[in-house]
Amino acid sequence: xxxxxxxxxxxxxxxxxxxxxxxxxxxxxxxxxxxxxxxxxxxxxxxxxxxxxxxxxxxxxxxxxxxxxxxxxxxxxxxxxxxxxxxxxxxxxxxxxxxxxxxxxxxxxxxxxxxxxxxxxxxx
Length: 124
Hints:
This protein has a single domain (3-122), classed as Roll (Nuclear Transport Factor 2, Chain: A). Helix content is 31%, strand content 49%. The protein has a 6-stranded mixed beta sheet with strand order 2-1-6-5-4-3. The protein is globular, with a radius of gyration of 14 Å. It has helices at residues 3-27, 30-33, 57-65, and strands at residues 37-47, 50-55, 73-82, 85-95, 98-109, 112-122. The protein has 3 helices and 6 strands; from the N terminus they run ααββαββββ. The protein is of the alpha+beta class.
């Protein structure tokens, strides 16, 4: 198998991990997105003037408190891959009426890509 083929399968695996995250937003159930995250994952970003920083459970709680984001549209604008470490940028529109730019750090853990950190920008 060539490096290009290996990289393509890794990019697809990362995209699948990010899709689990999006699926949880669309369903409004954090249980649908939890498999995308490492248990020690963190979240950081601003909601207005307030800094949100801490364990990823903060995201899960927010998702469970909101209605399903059935109109959510998203796309991956970039993935940068270095063997077992990756970064990805995702654009999300109409997530409970909000637009987000998410930047993720991922780590390949026991053969699976897991989100280690999520840093977000809430567009005004």
